[in-house]
Write a structure and sequence with these properties.
about 280 residues, mainly alpha, about 60% helix, disordered C terminus, binds zinc ion
Length: about 280
């Protein structure tokens, strides 16, 4: 039976649930980040900027509040949305949210890098070297754009097509988890991933770490497809990835690794001197 709480009760619930999911995923990201294995696999072997964590913590508080206001607003005006659960519908909703948000993120992110809009995105780039908390570091304006887009897709899924809440919730959890992982500055995926067909579709932590280090390029969220199609992918991405995997993460922010395409998968031993020789 649909449940219709009062507005303050609804707002409080949304704040609690959405805030907890956000903080939990960042906390889990930190636990992974602190391990010894993670320390070996850093993409950039550099310190954070002074005051970075403090700045990001304030921004995260703003993000939690902004999201709570937007989600409460949507839920209040549309009323309870309960669609019957079917696995095929849930998968379809998930795919819709995933693909839709990839496009929304790429387009708005690229626009936010234009000089006239960059001030709204600057908060996210307080981190040149990222850590999991960077996943929640956005200005209120940028967050309105991002969450607004996500809720627009959410609304369309439930009102214009046979969507389910389960598909949307599953996507949200994926989104938070991959965001915390993607900002960990730690490369967990093996060398061969980047050149495999999966790696030609999906991102890695290295992919996004390079966006924070270099600004102009790698605008995509969890996929690399739009960057590849639109010419905004960095050519040395496979090499930077390989360096992180070899426990030889980059030490200079502007460092590029020119040379041939991807590191040869076999024999690995002969590829190593070439890669480290470009330091
Ligand atoms: Zn980022
Ligand atoms: Zn950016």
């Amino acid at each position: 039976m649909p449940w219709n709480p009062s507005l303050p009760m609804l707002a409080l619930l949304v704040l609690l649930i959405s805030g907890t999911v956000k903080l939990l995923t960042v906390a889990l990201g930190w636990l992974a980040w602190r391990t010894r294995a993670a320390e070996r696999l850093r993409v950039y072997r550099r310190e954070w900027a002074q005051g970075q964590l403090r700045s990001e913590a304030w921004a995260a508080a703003g993000v939690v509040l902004t999201d709570a206001v937007l989600i409460t607003g949507l839920r209040y005006y549309t009323g309870p949305l309960l669609a019957p659960f079917r696995l095929s519908t849930a998968l379809g909703t998930y795919a819709w949210m995933f693909v839709g948000f990839e496009v929304w993120f790429y387009v708005t992110h690229r626009l936010l890098h234009l000089p006239r809009f960059y001030r709204f995105h600057a908060q996210h780039h307080v981190a040149q070297v990222t850590e999991p908390l960077t996943a929640l570091s956005f200005s209120v304006v940028e967050r309105l754009v991002l969450t607004g887009g996500g809720l627009g897709l959410h609304f369309a899924a439930l009102h214009l097509m046979p969507g389910t809440q389960v598909g949307i919730l599953a996507y949200m959890v994926t989104n938070y988890a991959l965001n915390a992982l993607g900002h960990g500055n730690t490369e967990w995926l093996p060398r061969r991933f980047v050149t495999s067909w999966v790696g030609r579709v999906f991102f890695t932590p290295t992919f996004h770490a390079m966006h924070h280090a270099r600004y102009q390029g790698h605008y995509g969220l969890f996929t690399v497809v739009l960057d590849r199609w639109l010419g905004t992918a960095f050519e040395d991405y496979p090499r930077v990835h390989a360096r992180a995997r070899d426990a030889e993460g980059l030490t200079r922010m502007g460092e590029r690794l020119p040379g041939a395409l991807a590191p040869a998968p076999v024999p690995v031993a002969s590829a190593v001197p070439g890669v480290s020789g470009t330091r």
